[in-house]
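Incident review: delayed structure delivery

Summary: a single-chain prediction request sat in the queue longer than the usual turnaround. Root cause was a stuck worker, restarted by the on-call engineer. No data loss occurred. The affected request and its eventual output are reproduced below so the record is complete for anyone auditing the incident later.

Affected input:
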Amino acid sequence: MTPVEEKMSPAERRRERQRRLIIKAATDLFEANGGEEGGGYAATTIEQVAENSDISVRTFFRYFETKDDVIYLDVRRAVEDQRHFIERRLEEGLSPENAALMGTIEQALVFSADKVNRKRLERGLTSPNFTDRRAAWRSMQREMLEELLTPHIKAEGPARRAKAIAWLTSAIFDCAASAWQQDPRSDLRDRIKTAVEDLAEALGVINVPGKEGLEALLKQLEFYSNR
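Output delivered after worker restart:
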């Protein structure tokens, strides 16, 4: 049971089971209607998914915002889970930067451990039907991070700093997913770890001493701009 599920009430667990049943019904219909290559996306309707799940269309929209979210990946749920993990780290007293990093990594690892999530993500990453929704996912993720972190930043310009943290943090899973897309047989968790290491290394210039450090580089820019 994940940290998210641990805090679920019995009613929330029943809701989660229903959500999974809807995903299964949508997946079965999608494959029966031809799958990705055979026009399964266009042929599978929300009305069909609702009928096969024994729910109303109105109830469907209580669980998912779009058809893309049930066939490919529920981006709203992914963002909500990420927020939950980061909030837990903030409650533990971590700095906004570390809370965002640790919470995002934790959520990504929990997400990738779920076989259903991996399958739906793989399907979405390779589908032109999911392109717009994937872009919306990144936007929703960054907006959530900015809104969540800003009140916890004591430094000057908290909104600006929160935006920077949000963009860097959101890059972790995006980079990992893009790399995993090239080889879905590899371990997505390893791709996440590599993405974190790459990001840390890329930003290492901040802590590098001497003429390669950020402060020295900025001084060089100032020198040339004043000539």
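Verification: The two ends are 62 Å apart (CA to CA).
Action items: add queue-age alerting; document worker restart procedure.
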